[in-house]
Amino acid sequence: MSAPKKLLILPGDGIGPEIMHEARRIMDWMAQARGVRFDISEDLVGGASLAVHGQPITQQVIDAARAADAVLFGSVGDPKWASAGFDRRPEIAILKLRQELGLFANLRPAKVFDSLVDASTLKPDVIRGLDIMIVRETVGGIYFGTPRGIETLPDGTRRGINTEVYTTAEIERVARVAFDLARKRDNRVCSVEKCNVMESGLLWKEVVTDLHAREYSDVELSHMLADNCAMQMVRNPRQFDVIVTGNLFGDLLSDLASMLTGSLGMLPSATLGAKGEDGRTPALYEPIHGSAPDIAGQGKANPLAQILSLAMLLRYSFDMQEDAAMIEQAVSNVLDRGLRTPDIMSAGKTEVNTAGMGEAVVAELDRLNRAA
Ligand SMILES: NC(=O)c1ccc[n+]([C@@H]2O[C@H](COP(=O)([O-])OP(=O)(O)OC[C@H]3O[C@@H](n4cnc5c(N)ncnc54)[C@H](O)[C@@H]3O)[C@@H](O)[C@H]2O)c1
Ligand SMILES: CC(C)[C@H](C(=O)O)[C@@H](O)C(=O)O
Ligand SMILES: [Mg+2]
After folding, report:
1. What residues does Mg(2+) bind to (predicted)?
2. Residue 319 belongs to domain with CATH number
3. Residues 208 and 283 placed together within one structural domain of the fold
4. Is 227 annotated as catalytic?
5. Cβ(262)–Cβ(150) under 8 Å?
6. Residue 335 in 3-state DSSP?
């Protein structure tokens, strides 16, 4: 029998530990009801790590993430550390993990569950059946380009600097992920940049166009300026299948896309690296939202993005298609039955707290498992 898969769990800050608790509930159920064995370890990141180790992520955690078959991440960020200095931000934990593990392709699917069409602030007719995949580049662009920093000018005023940098290789590898995904979906990619203003955007467009002509001419390719894309996503989001874009635009567009599905608390993500010589693909799974300090500790957080991130982990890293599909089905059924955390609550539905939603998903999994 092969060794159990190594799973590193990093709950983080704010609502992170609360929603991770519900994902763990699912893992416990899988072990007990389906005999699924994982080699699970858990560690500190973000403000939780700063409080104990004085740094947002330790080398030990980075090494453990590298050694794991997959990482399930919660969220980081805590206003307590706002004045601790830019080098001691909790958010460094996720940025460092992406960089150190080479996690360059962040897959952010925005799918509308039928029973949540009324939860979106957009009209049901606009979002019913929506299924978009945003592929966001996550180790380059303005997040990491140099020069960067804050400098004091001779006249005593200050200047903040960040630089958008993309190389051909960085653009090509993320575009390849988008084209490959499109082939398994509706076969359409929309590449998003601002080539009208930024040279890095111009290069982005050229590289994607060249790669398409060389290797992916069977896929329909379109290009869109990022500002127009934000508008089109609200006007007519179903026009999109796969969107591929850089780090910052992808961050903004995916938060926007989450509201089409009803709530930021609904969107999971997978961030993948390049396959190594050992045949393993480094991967981290996390909700796209943050630590939500405004609702932390109140039992109000929606755990579904975290639970759906676990489903993505099972599908992409462990090839457990049946288990992943069963979790997604359980989530869908629970929503069909009218259970809602406050962020997706509407008239006539039943409000539950974070634990209530997790328990309901487990009960539904149990029902589906017995019926199978
Ligand atoms: N990957 C990450 O760990 C990550 C992602 C985004 C933001 N952050 C960090 O999180 C902190 C808070 O940032 P923010 O407030 O701008 O963004 P946020 O995503 O934490 O919250 C934005 C809004 O959405 C709500 N929300 C988010 N997740 C929810 C959930 N699961 N259920 C119900 N409501 C939910 C929050 O209550 C809040 O009103 C900051 O420190 C930020 O840097 C971390
Ligand atoms: C916390 C922050 C560094 C992060 C990002 O900007 O990538 C977050 O907003 C996200 O979407 O994962
Ligand atoms: Mg974000």
Report:
1. 227, 251, 255
2. 3.40.718.10
3. no
4. yes
5. no
6. helix
**Any known ligand binding at 255?**
yes
In the reported structure, the alpha carbon of residue 290 is separated from the centroid of ligand 1 by a whole-number distance in angstroms of: 3
Whole-angstrom CA distances from 293 to 43, 86, 110, 306 are: 20, 19, 24, 17
State the Cα–Cα distance between residues 188 and 184, nearest whole angstrom.
Answer: 10
One domain for residues 255 and 359: no
Query: Domain limits at 147?
Result: 107-269
Question: What residues flank ion ligand 3 with Cβ within 5 A?
Answer: 251
- Tens-place pLDDT, residues 33-86: 999 999 999 999 999 999 999 999 999 999 999 999 999 999 999 999 999 899
Overall pTM > 0.95? yes
Q: Which residue spans within 112-258 are E strands per DSSP? A: 131-137, 149-152, 158-161, 188-193, 220-225, 242-245
C-alpha distances out from residue 160 to 99, 139, 153, Å: 23, 21, 11
Q: Which residues line ligand 1 (CB under 6 A)?
A: 15, 19, 75-77, 91, 94, 264-265, 286, 289-295, 301-302, 305, 343
* Probe residue for ligand 2, chosen from 71, 89, 94, 285 as the CB with the greatest number of ligand atoms within 8 Å: 94
Choosing from 13, 69, 166, 194, the catalytic residue is 194
Q: Hey, what are 302's tokens?
A: 């929606």
Whether residue 285 lies in the annotated active site: no
Are 115 and 250 part of one and the same domain? yes
Centre of ligand 1 to C-alpha 229, Å, is 23
The reply to whether 255 and 177 lie within a common domain is: yes
What CA–CA distance (Å, rounded) separates 105 from 216? 18
88 and 215, same domain (yes or no): no
**Is-catalytic flag, 143?**
yes
How far is residue 289 from each of residues 19, 61, 142, 266, 306, measured CA to CA in Å?
11, 22, 20, 9, 10
Compute the distance between CA of residue 16 and CA of residue 41 in angstroms, rounded to an integer: 16
Q: What is the number of the ligand 2 atom nearest to the C-alpha of 248?
A: 6
Distance 52 CA to ligand 2 centre (A): 23
> Is 136 annotated in some ligand binding site?
yes
